């Protein structure tokens, strides 16, 4: 139940600062979104199954988005008269397909239904994924017109969530915008992600005073990575904009070799390391995938562009492990 935490997040006499509810506010991307909102002087509610610590301007709210009855969910998400809800919740790393269906599709359905019930209009910024597109094996970047033919359970479940949001927006039920995010990199990368796993193995080797041996599946793909702080800025910009009922790609606009990114993290760490790429049965002869994101539409409609280098994201990821 959401009980007392939800009832406390608006105090009588507060100023009418913009209030934003961040679903998945204690997750990797959600934490960066909350930090960016707080940096702008916003009044932020961070929603998660277990409430994290509060701080000035940030109110934690413990709420199970997949179990709370619809009416109660609508009340919990809108009781504080928020102007924007950001959906940064979801499942990707180390999740089963059913868990992805629940977190990436059914959760979105429930949030959309809840916001339809809002007495006052609430803008929804939904974070999708570029994995909703089909990966390419050539140099053509994916833009918003690229067919959505995801090849993974993650991509399929994220696409279903995106379609729910777009359908509601196009019917006029919601003011909503979907940001299709590239791979996000930066401080707090989860241990189950590629960069998070490599960083934690390097950190353990450093603490134990030894070289690291890092075993990974073959690193042949090229991917678009965006700094987590740039991703959070894109969310802020989208929240302020009047653009709705569509998808915008958010990324760096450049694909990088995943192996080169791992090598960069090793170099930044200063830890001697040996990477072992273990073959996968049946993967021989498969063309390496390349996914580069065309972000021209985000520049045009939002005035947003990435500002940070990938080297900054990797360096900050490593330094954050000591904090």
Helix content: 25-40%
| Average pLDDT score | 89
Q: Order of SSEs, N→C?
A: HEHEEHEHEHEEHEEHEEHEEHH
The proportion of residues in beta strands is 15-25%
CATH C-level: Alpha Beta
Structural class: alpha/beta
Counting DSSP H or I runs of 4 or more residues, the number of helices is: 10
- Number of distinct beta strands: 13
CATH superfamily, please? Answer: NAD(P)-binding Rossmann-like Domain
**Quaternary assembly:** single chain
Regions with little confidence, pLDDT below 50 for 5+ residues: 1-16
For the report, how would you describe the main beta sheet?
7 strands, parallel
Distance between the termini: 33 Å
Radius of gyration: 20 Å
CATH topology: Rossmann fold
Q: How many distinct folded domains?
A: 1
Gross CATH architecture = 3-Layer(aba) Sandwich
Overall outline: globular
Widest sheet: strand order? Answer: 3-2-1-4-5-6-10
Short account of what is shown:
The chain has 323 residues and is of the alpha/beta class.
Give the secondary structure arrangement, pairings included.
Elements: H1 3-8, E1 19-23, H2 28-39, E2 43-48, E3 58-62, H3 70-78, E4 84-87, H4 97-116, E5 123-129, H5 153-170, E6 175-181, E7 183-185, H6 194-208, E8 212-216, E9 222-227, H7 228-240, E10 247-250, E11 255-257, H8 258-269, E12 273-277, E13 290-291, H9 296-302, H10 310-320
Parallel strand pairs: 1-2, 1-4, 2-3, 4-5, 5-6, 6-10, 7-9, 8-12, 9-13
Antiparallel strand pairs: 9-11
Helix pairs in contact: 2-7, 3-4, 4-5, 6-8, 8-10
């Amino acid at each position: 139940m959401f009980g007392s935490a939800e009832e406390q997040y608006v105090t009588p006499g507060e100023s009418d600062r913009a209030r934003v509810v961040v679903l998945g506010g204690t997750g990797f991307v959600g934490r960066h979104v909350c930090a960016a909102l707080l940096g702008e002087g916003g009044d932020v509610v961070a929603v998660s199954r277990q409430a994290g610590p509060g701080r000035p301007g940030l109110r934690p709210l413990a709420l199970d988005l997949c179990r709370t009855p619809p009416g109660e969910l609508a009340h919990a998400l809108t009781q504080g008269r928020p102007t924007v809800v950001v959906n940064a919740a979801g499942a990707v790393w180390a999740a089963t397909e059913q868990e992805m269906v629940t977190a990436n599709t059914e959760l979105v359905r429930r949030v959309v239904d809840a916001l339809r019930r809002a007495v006052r209009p609430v803008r929804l910024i939904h974070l999708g994924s570029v994995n909703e597109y089909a990966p390419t094996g050539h140099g053509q970047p994916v833009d918003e017109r690229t067919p959505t033919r995801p090849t993974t359970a993650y991509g399929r479940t994220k696409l279903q969530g995106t379609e729910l949001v777009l359908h509601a927006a196009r019917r006029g039920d919601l003011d909503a915008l979907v940001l299709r995010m590239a791979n996000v990199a930066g401080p707090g990368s989860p241990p189950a992600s590629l960069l998070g796993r490599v960083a934690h193995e390097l950190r353990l080797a450093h603490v134990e005073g030894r070289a690291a041996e890092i075993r990974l599946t073959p690193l042949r793909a090229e991917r678009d990575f965006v700094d987590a702080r740039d991703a959070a800025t894109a969310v802020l910009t989208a929240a302020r904009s009047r653009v709705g009922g569509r998808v915008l790609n958010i990324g760096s606009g450049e694909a990088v070799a995943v192996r080169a990114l791992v090598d960069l993290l090793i170099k930044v760490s200063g830890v001697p390391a040996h990477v072992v790429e273990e073959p996968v049965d049946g993967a021989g002869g498969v063309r390496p995938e390349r996914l580069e994101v065309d972000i021209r539409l985000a520049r045009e409609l939002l005035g947003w562009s990435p500002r940070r280098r990938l080297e900054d994201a990797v360096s900050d990821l490593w330094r954050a492990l000591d904090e």
